Amino acid sequence: xxxxxxxxxxxxxxxxxxxxxxxxxxxxxxxxxxxxxxxxxxxxxxxxxxxxxxxxxxxxxxxxxxxxxxxxxxxxxxxxxxxxxxxxxxxxxxxxxxxxxxxxxxxxxxxxxxxxxxxxxxxxxxxxxxxxxxxxxxxxxxxxxxxxxxxxxxxxxxxxxxxxxxxxxxxxxxxxxxxxxxxxxxxxxxxxxxxxxxxxxxxxxxxxxxxxxxxxxxxxxxxxxxxxxxxxxxxxxxxxxxxxxxxxxxxxxxxx
Length: 256
Ligand code: 6GU
Known about the structure:
Elements: E1 2-7, H1 19-26, E2 31-36, E3 49-50, E4 60-61, H2 63-73, E5 92-102, H3 105-112, E6 116-119, H4 129-135, E7 141-145, H5 155-166, E8 203-204, E9 207-208, H6 218-236, H7 238-242
Parallel strand pairs: 1-2, 1-6, 5-6, 5-7
Antiparallel strand pairs: 3-4, 8-9
The protein binds 6-chloroguanine (6GU).
């Protein structure tokens, strides 16, 4: 997968060199390219913002640098080969913004299937709307929010989204099973939060690991894990429990 990020703070994205995403890049699974938006300005101050039409606080990112950056990074008509011999595809533009649609695991799964993502994280009060409307005439655009709070800029949201997407790419996770049991992964544990986990030693500061986990009884362990997941979901995310469809629960779930 190719990922381009256009930003006035490329150094904010240095964590992409580290750990899982860094390894995916070393393995050639991810091709991440960072671009300095100010490289597409022409004035001595490398200005990227200006005052908002209609008045109001803050500054708005000017359209021209963004348009030149997007035209260079993702020229009209450009494609990359699809994954696993799929037909070539153009880029998909992702604009992180608190006024976007929620970035969920389902969105991560959808984006992980695309071979080329271009991220346009903004600072200040956002990017001149015409940039997004113009880009939308030649590529899919997703305006996405990572939660109901306001960050100073979209760069951290890019880190969040890239990590969530990268770990879904084939060959990135060491253990193929790890993505399957995730909280929010599709399947039986759909929309259940994961319960507690334990490792050795079996006794630590007088605290014991739950006996069932040492029993070797796979059926009982699976039941215990599901019960703990249900309890945790009810405690932390009653909204998810309220959205359960009855057929997703079994008789023993109702006893928890
Ligand atoms: Cl994507 N950007 C900013 N600036 N703030 C946010 C966000 C994104 N998602 C939640 N808050």
